[in-house]
Give the backbone structure.
Amino acid sequence: MVKVAIVGYGQTKFSKEDSKIESVLLKSTKDLFDSTSNLHQKDIDAVLVSTNNNSKYLSAVLSEMSGIQPKISHSIESLCNSGTNSVVAAYSYIVSGLAELVLISGAERYDSPGQILEWDNLRGEFKHPIFWASIFSKAYKRKYEVGEEDLALVSVKNHRQSKNNPHALSHKSVSIEDVLNSKKLTDDLRLLDCSQPCTGGASVLLASEEICKKFTDDPIWITGIGQKTTSASFTKNPAFDNMGSTKQAGLNAFQMSKHTPLEIDVMEIHDAFSVCEPMALESMGFANQGKGLEIVNEAYASENSKINPRGGLIGSGHPLGATGISQTIEIVQQLQSNAGKRQVDNANIGLVHNMSAAATSSTVLILEK
Amino acid sequence: MVKVAIVGYGQTKFSKEDSKIESVLLKSTKDLFDSTSNLHQKDIDAVLVSTNNNSKYLSAVLSEMSGIQPKISHSIESLCNSGTNSVVAAYSYIVSGLAELVLISGAERYDSPGQILEWDNLRGEFKHPIFWASIFSKAYKRKYEVGEEDLALVSVKNHRQSKNNPHALSHKSVSIEDVLNSKKLTDDLRLLDCSQPCTGGASVLLASEEICKKFTDDPIWITGIGQKTTSASFTKNPAFDNMGSTKQAGLNAFQMSKHTPLEIDVMEIHDAFSVCEPMALESMGFANQGKGLEIVNEAYASENSKINPRGGLIGSGHPLGATGISQTIEIVQQLQSNAGKRQVDNANIGLVHNMSAAATSSTVLILEK
């Protein structure tokens, strides 16, 4: 079977800028071209755009702006895990032989229409993510006797990490007290428990084994893929204290890669809200149920956290369509020993966890040197 | 290599109904389930939604409504050829081994935001498709000394065919005079030269060779795929009297399938406007430049046209995200000798041509018994 590697990447700074979506797409694509050896437009077989933006035909628009005339060209949307869905689609185009070299560009604006799931109005007025996050937090705190201050550590750790991420939205230090004193949004959620919508772009270049060495001496291989959608609405979840789609996606990704959670050296976890980090870690088998905060604490105690080293969504910001791609880039940089002040020791195998809408769908990717 | 077949399909009637996009998706999916043997929700690995609708997370919404919990689930958008892009993505997921059974559902509402390409404002005010279609018509008529009445035959033929398509928007007879007397939209385009936006849905089920016989005795194989995007804006086309992306996509599809235009027994051509039919036929090698109308005339002379037997976009209506899938279903029905009054004789090899935005991108598929 054809092996697929990530051979290049580009990013914009995440911000609250009022930029056109086309400009955001172009900016990270240009950064990718500038930093990738021997990359010529004519060699790109497919251009995929990951976004929740309402503009149409963006992959053709980006292609034209970038001087690319691809075979395959379309947008992909699945709310907050559009980015990793695009990585899997690109992987698939390469393995199936329809493409050898695929550019993926993810972009979002701070005012993305993907922040609210209108369809969830059908279940009452719980269409904004803070409602499911609040219910998750309440259920998790009750069941596992966890306090608000325990969950706050996720935000403290991830803000500490994002200070070393030049592309992050936040470069502020945040203390437990800051989190606990931040604006109360619901009974169980404060402002600093939440990732922030923002404007940002992230692009990656995927290549087949046959051509990957042309672009980098250090290709990073996609060795595990797991995906699962359990429903579209959080009210269909059987429980509010675990993530069924993440569990299944994790099992499939580990099975495909022939690795176990113990072998993962560095990971990006979709911490849309503080409670998501321990819940996701538990669902993927990194900790027993209710014990996820123990490894968050361990990660906090080390100089560089192997959990969300770039600062997670809470520290980096959450430009929906770009998030999964930005997470993937972080793991690529870590495995290439190219993560600067965020570098985790002995990073050989990494994991990306990216999900949508109350973990009703999840993607887990395993990447290796 | 894994072979991929189309093993089931479902459709809605195309109409001007003010239906919710979720209802349209569900309706053709239900029709597919009702007409496909041995299909169980649990066996579906991927659900792809093809649409230009602004609603998010529609593949998860459709999955939940249909009782499916897929691994892979996302929307695909590329304006008017979103449908065939989704077919190619599904093909790729199966060949790459990530899926064995993929459901694709395309849907659009009559008021789709994909009807206007806002980005084309940058090139002046030519953001509505009638402007490029008008320029194409003027260029084609001038260069090949073709009259308005010659192009009108495309509309007459396709309206005749759509009378035998129970799902078509139009069941009216239309004469050359009707076309020439219909409302003048621009110097070179009348209302009956145009396909009409409408509400409609179309779904197909794709399976690997290994499992396809479970669902049908008559699988239809995807043997050729060609895709090309040349730009996002028609003003970047070097000429206005041919379709570069269609030409390239056609060459690639024929090469992959090891067939030639002479071997194609039945075809769906993206006649968004009357001039598109001869131009596309020429670009794919079915006729010499400027001679496309000769084979349109031949097709008209036969009882059932092998060019756009379901009535094309002009007769059937054009629900953007559903169109490429509906075209694919027509070819499947023809190759299965299941096309009722529209049945073309000796249909063994068929072709689908689906394009976007002034033929700035095209997909060509070749299907075989």
Remarks:
- The mean pLDDT of chain B is 95.
- The two ends of chain B are 18 Å apart (CA to CA).
- Chain B touches chain A through 57 residues (CB under 8 Å).
- The first strand of chain B starts at residue 4 and ends at 11.
